[in-house]
Amino acid sequence: MYQSILFDLDGTLTDPKEGITKCVQYALKHFNIEENDLNHLTCFIGPPLQHSFMTFYGLDEAQAKVAVAKYRERFSTIGLFENGVYKGIKEMLEALRKQGKKLAVATSKPYIYAEKILENYHLKQYFDVIVGSELDGTRSNKAEVIQEVFKQLKLNEEDKHETIMVGDRKQDILGAKACHIHSIGVEFGYAEEGELELAGADYIVNNVMNLKEFLLHH
Hints:
Shape: globular
Distance between the termini: 5 Å
Number of strands: 6
Largest sheet: 6 strands, parallel
Mean pLDDT: 96
Low-confidence stretches: none
Strand order of the largest sheet: 3-2-1-4-5-6
Number of helices: 9
Structural class: alpha/beta
């Protein structure tokens, strides 16, 4: 049985599409790049922002840092709450808590934003620890986030056999592998077709109900 369960935030607990894509759109305008179709920007949900601006729009490192600052200009006040909790998530977290599981949020999103989102949507109460990145980009790699969760939960090497990472993108799966824990990919988030399989997810579920059943019985 898994005793410690780590959850990604964006695309796993909440659907952040509107907020993230509109903030990316806002940042790109600074560079005179017009992107009118928000669906083209869902690739920004999950991976670290700076890397995404460089990968998907060819910005150099200095430009990407400016783009992240512009993104946060809108995100910190508006985009943060253009969000919503997936149906069934609260009930799942409540059931897991009743079973005595240790629950953590492990996100590449800056901690300061993750905490505000969890508070706003009344999810914070379910988690023993919340770990994210820092605003300066420190600890944006998912493996580093997971390692910090282990540190805060005071888990040791033996506990890894009873720990699982839940996420919707390859970064979650690869981070779990790097830390030698199991992973479960959720298809209701923003992974591209075949992404979770290719990354090597140990398990894959297609909806919140199946995720709940799996976590309660494994």
